[in-house]
Specification:
The protein is mainly β. It is built from 1 helix and 7 strands; from the N terminus they run βββββαββ. The strands form 3 sheets. The chain has a 3-stranded antiparallel sheet with strand order 5-7-6, with no helix packed on it. The chain has a two-stranded antiparallel sheet with strand order 1-2. β6 and β7 form a beta hairpin.
């Protein structure tokens, strides 16, 4: 971000004459804004297979991630935080488009139910 100072000038007019110009200098300080994640509305439904491979579902195809002061992000985690069936439940991410998802890769820990998404060089 550009943190250089800014100069603001004020002039008023009484419908016939302009006033003198007064100025004020503002120092812009950089602040680190936290990333924002927003899920879409509603629940997702999954049907477990009965001795057959289950059909994967998108947990939230409408999720959005943003950061007000960074164009890219370094990492994210997705976790099964309730009723995890360790060794059975699986989270996955498939990078089907480098244009859309950049260089994101995913690693899933089946014991903890945590998937870690990373972007090499924090460039995604």
């Amino acid at each position: 971000p550009n943190t250089a100072t800014r100069t603001i000038s004020f002039t008023v007019n009484d419908d016939s004459d302009d006033s003198n110009t007064a100025t004020k200098t503002i120092t812009v300080a950089d602040t680190n804004q936290s990333p924002i994640v927003t899920t879409s509305w509603g629940n997702s439904a999954f049907t477990a297979g009965n001795n057959v491979t289950s059909t994967p579902i998108a947990v939230d195809s409408g999720i959005t991630v943003s950061d007000l002061d960074n164009y890219t992000l370094a990492s994210a985690t997705v976790a099964i935080t309730g009723n995890l069936h360790s060794g059975e439940d699986v989270l996955g991410f498939s990078n089907t488009s480098a244009v859309t998802y950049g260089n994101i890769t995913a690693i899933y820990n089946s014991l903890t139910g945590v998937m870690t998404l990373t972007s090499s060089g924090a460039s995604a």
